[in-house]
Amino acid sequence: MSFLRIKQLGILVAGLMLSGCMATQYQSADTSSFKPRDKDLLAKASYARTPVAASFRRAIVDYHRKEAPGSILVDSDNHYLYYVLDNGKAIRYGVTVGEEALAFSGIARVGNKREWPDWIPTADIHKRMGGLPSRVAGGPDNPLGARALYLYQGSKDTLFRIHGTNQPEYIGTSISSGCIRMTNEDAIDLYDRVKVGTMVVVLEPRRSARMASWGGNGSVN
What distance in Å separates the CA atoms of residue 158 and residue 150, rounded to the nearest whole number? Predict the structure, then answer.
């Protein structure tokens, strides 16, 4: 067998091994832990139930960064949020993130948690969008959705949130006013795992090349 043929076979085998490692096992949304209020309000939602693209569905993936188990990392470029597990694994969720000029980045902590929170538009949002009410009561069509995690730095509320959404069609895009949006089902799942005080790392935009190098989009068990 020629050297070239052996080399080609070697590349083919390596490719097959890599593709096997990169296979992703997605998780279906488990509603068994939802509270009666959750089921009732979600059933009343009037927004379009647009399916999330397969690549942004919840999955268990390999995780090679050094954040401790129980931490959250947000990869803004690739539109993923990771909840770090033990043994080099993480739960990966698809998210909507802020437009680049509005996006939050840095290290924060979960300073507060709320179920079906009211939405109080910030002064900046009022200025940019106009015509908004001062407060929108919590409910299925509220922009904050089913759950919200409030991000703090020190004792100061950053005014950025990780929250549900009434626009699931935008998961995987960068259109928000800076907050990190998840489907309501994923927001409930994450909320039930996270404690007040949890560390949150939000990578600055244009870090996707570095993220690819550690396999954040990689294999699952």
Answer: 8
